[in-house]
Design brief:
This protein has no helices and eleven strands. It has 119 residues and is mainly beta. 30% of the residues are buried.
């Protein structure tokens, strides 16, 4: 049984910062890619950032220079540091990870955490 739990969402004013965390727990042999997605009301889920097992990162054009994805392999945790937040960043943010649970690997998803950027 593997779980991903996000935390760190909330309400922030435009220009502010938030740091999201995604902690994986359970029968984990290793974690490959870790991803942050977001879904705004009425819009499709979009990939915001990802980081592979070697630490290489990719970002959506809309967040480049403002968001930073990182991971702590010892803690099985990924982070998303979000700076210079804009109202259009308002969405439910989801964490996802490719996890080897010993007899294969599977893509797991967290339950999501709400980020609201508003004055």
């Amino acid at each position: 049984q593997v779980q991903l739990v996000e935390s760190g969402g909330g309400l922030v004013q435009p220009g502010g910062s938030l740091k999201l965390s995604c902690a994986a727990s359970g029968s984990i042999f290793s974690i490959y890619g870790m991803y942050w997605y977001r879904q705004a009301p009425g819009k499709e889920r979009e990939l915001v950032a990802d980081i592979n097992g070697s630490g290489s990162t990719k970002y959506a054009d809309s967040v480049k220079g403002r968001f930073t994805i990182s991971r702590d392999n010892a803690k099985n945790t990924a982070y998303l540091q979000m700076n210079s937040l804009k109202p259009e960043d308002t969405a439910v943010y989801y964490c996802s990870a490719e996890i080897d649970y010993g007899v294969g690997y599977h893509r797991y998803w967290g339950q999501g955490t709400q980020v609201t950027v508003s004055s």
